[in-house]
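Data deposition worksheet. Section B asks for the primary sequence of the deposited chain exactly as it was used as input, without tags or linkers unless they were present during the calculation. Section C holds the resulting structure in token form. Section D is free text for depositor observations; keep each observation to a single sentence. Incomplete worksheets are returned to the depositor.
Section A, Depositor: J.P.
Section B:
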Amino acid sequence: MTDSLVQKYNIPGPRYTSYPTVPFWNKEGIDVEDWKRTMVQAFSESNAEEGISIYIHLPFCENLCTFCGCHKRITKRHEVEVPYLTTLLKEWDLYCDLFPERPRIKELHLGGGTPTFFRPAHLKEMMEGILQRADICDEYEFSFEAHPNHTSEAHLQTLYDLGFRRNSFGVQDYDLKVQKTINRIQPFEHVEAVTLKSREIGYTSVSHDLVFGLPHQTKDSIVNTIEKTKSLKPDRISFYSYAHVPWIKGVGQRGYDENDLPSADEKRVLYETGKQMLHELGYVEIGMDHFALKTDNMYEAMVAKTLHRNFMGYTAGKTKLMVGLGMSSISDSWYSFAQNVKSVEEYQDIVNKGKIPLLRGHLLNAEDLVIREHILNIMCHFETTWREERLQFPELPECLERLQEMESDGLVTLTEYGLKLPEDARPFVRNICMAFDLHLIRNKPTTRIFSMTI
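Section C:
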């Protein structure tokens, strides 16, 4: 793709981990009883056959990584662990008490924050508490995110013994100047140690997270980072575009300014360089930002068209119900979304009073459900169809009209009943989704609320 197309389409836009996206959820939120009703509905429709997913948000970090957009709490006080996990298990009990039968877990992911901030023994107690009230599906996947500097052999062995087989290590970039700027200094040797130890223990999928577009990042630093990554050959690689949103994330991202960031054209070179190197190493591009070896089940899911996208990112399988536990976590009942309150103290206070700690949410209407399916198809499979009457909607002609110019620019191929993205147009997938985003079109933001699309 030419630089002119990058300049033309590099505009603020959602990342589409949900539809509607969070800024366009109902202003009045969601009634707790409506939330409970849709949770039970999704559970009843899916638990017996596909099971449920659980996302657990573990928010604590010892240091602030200034590029990070996650909801976290910076502290070196590890006495916060037990009260938080005790509350989290109480929240799980609130949901289990709603369900008409014992839940079956298909997928469970520990995110953060830094999940390996917590002591291995405490993580073990948490998982035992979760599993005390649930069964595990025959085919399941337990995974966790980890900081290489704060992950011990005991962490890896304890979580493996609990059924975890996939982990993800945040690398970002190995260039020391970049690491100092984002306050994330971790030598290659630390990443190497946890990667090799994971494989020695028996983990079947090890992932590394890399980021392009960071302050002071250059083509040379991307090449150096991927050359080092090459020697470890992780099963998956997330190659994310840095989202510079200091108006949302505040003090961390205000530690540097846009003059320290690569320009749009320079950022595109970083992406194209990294992508080409990954392809040469045998990685296949999966959805947006993700790459996997052909031996990994993420690749198999892409081929089988079972790839799914939710608030955890891309997953190899779909469940209708995803329960989010912990402060700021988001749950998805397919028919509605709900996010927990964002402070540790408020979260603990509400749950300890026996209430579900909702901050906000959205009850999807019939139109939302149709558009959500199209956007999921585009984000996961780079195509969608409206041949079935249930996938048609009144504004479809206007959506297709908005895609005409993109078709002329070679970003999408339109047919009578569907569309596809050419392989070299995949970096523009968010722009294609925006043509279907009726909430965004009807309520165009007057201030900047999203990161750039490319």
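Section D:
DSSP finds 17 helices and 19 strands in the chain.
The longest strand covers residues 135-146.
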